[in-house]
Structure of enoyl-CoA hydratase:
Amino acid sequence: MSRMLAALSDQTLELGPARSAGPEGNWRFAMDTDHVAWLVLDRPGKSVNTIDRSVIEELAGHVERIAERRPTALVIRSAKPSGFAAGADIQQFAGASTAEISAMLEEAHRVLDRLSQLPMRTIAVIHGHCLGAGLELALACDRRIAVPDASLGFPEVMLGLHPGLGGTYRATAIADPLEAMTMMLTGKPATAKKAKVVGLVDAVVEERHVRAAVQAAIRGELEPAGGSFKAQAFSLRPARALMASQMRRKAADKAPKAHYPAPYRLIDLWEEHGGNAKAMQAAEVRSFAELIETETAQNLVRVFFLREAMRGLKQGSSAISRVHVVGAGAMGGDIAAWAAREGFHVTLGDVANEPIGRAMKAATKMLTATLKDPLKIRDALDRLTPDPHGLGIRQADLVIEAAPERIDLKRTIYAAIEPQLKTGALLATNTSALPLEDLAEGLADPSRLVGLHFFNPVSRMQLVEIVRHDRISAETLRRATAFAVKLSRLPAPVSSAPGFLVNRALTPYMAEALIMVDEGIPKERIDRIAESFGMPMGPVELADQVGLDIALEVSASLRQRLDVPFPDSPAWLEKLVAEKKLGRKTGSGLYEYDSDGKPKKQRVEASPEDAKSDPDLLDRMILPMLNAVVACLREGVVEREDIADGAMIFGTGFAPFRGGPIHYARHRGIDEITAKLRALAEKHGPRFTPDAGWDRLKG
């Protein structure tokens, strides 16, 4: 059956005579009756094409054969339904020296240069994902035809790199150079329509019209869209220098040069060599080979593989297509909207109609911002149904409870829901702190209760903690994990313990910052020091973002349930909560907020130099977080170091370029960190006492 479905999906792609051609390694090659060569990338045993050394070496042989046979034209495309190619196989660079990487890149450049110099028309046909090295391969062709579902981009900056197979100079010469630079600097992909506007592709056609578009390109009727006018304008260095200075300022707002050198290297390349393709090509190879050996790139590549490892926790299908969400508050509404966005049929219930109305309005806003395509927005909204009477419960494969954090309320909800659940349906809770063992009491079948702890905002935070308890079934865990991956989220399996993993580690980080505020240290300075370390948001602002009431509640819960010293919350914090100054959601908390929800911060001189003048400030925030992660590993709350690192990166934004808290600790040195914790404990109290789990990390 699976082979038949694969064959049917393959039939939807126009592959010319290569459809019936046997594979020659990673490629299929055939000539049609019009003497047009079709070269189709189809890596055996893989659902997605990637570009590695074997692909390039085989391409070299095919290019030479084509040069000898002199066909009328050459068409290059992919046989994979998933897309053209997802980029370079980054594993091929593991352990290689700068010289070895340079040699690999130079050989690949020679092959793509040879392709670009073929005397016949060369045409890339693009569908699905066309990223990184895949897009660079397409750019070496004369013309690019995209189908509407194509997504083109240069994600290398996410790995601490820039394009390395000619993308820096081909993209800026072929397309609008400013748009091409923006794509490379941000890593954000472009739709087929946008790619046509900026000049990356020359035509966008439906799949059924691909053969006709190819024939038009061969006849010379498909003129390059190109950004040649702007490319000519920016061939002069003074023009590039002006724009380069603006690019550096924008880059500094998002990615400090000390931590993320790749964007600045790319800007330098374009400013210095943008008018000279050969010089820029040579500089690109040198720069890429040097960047890939930097600590930032090594750690960001590690983060890439952490993401893949977390996705790899999925085993089989979740067998979930219909979801019912109980509770239309901020979290419940967002969970429902995101599930609808990802293709699930969702019903959303609440005890009152007003929260459902607000949730539907917020869903429309989120879907519009993330999907952009009116048809996709309409389809997602069609899958999201207001359900004040809970009629969707009986049809749901999964019911997610997202009610307020009161155990009696949740148990009451379960008592009403469980008799309505169909055979095989799962019951999930989005609790962020309550013990699942307690929530399971009174259930007729506790084996199907699971924690699905999402993070706010659901549309941006990739992590979902999959929380187990002592009576959960293995099948429930498996299906919940598969559901999270199908939801385009990253699952982190954790046990039911105070705060689970992420809140357990994040709370002492925020708590210590509030103690510093109590000591009179300016909150802006505290936040800037944390941000200089690489955190996406300082702990004071984060407390406001979470909600001071929630932060106070979680701190109290951990203080009560953990068998370790935990700091008392300042009295003034309790006063703010009593006055309903809860942070961003009320417009006032530790900071005041403007109409756009942005904090009004005083200008305080703060930089990485602060940590040098008072190194305790940074360590007082970061080391308790690390200490808590180590405790979670020792206690079995999380079982693997890589999952712990991934959860903290994707759940808290822990500085990705540092590779995760445990990776950072190992790099810095376990002995150094434990010595620092002991010194802080002597100075500030037992809350800094090193956890016993540090000794295990030395083994």
Residues 293 and 516 are 38 Å apart (CA to CA).
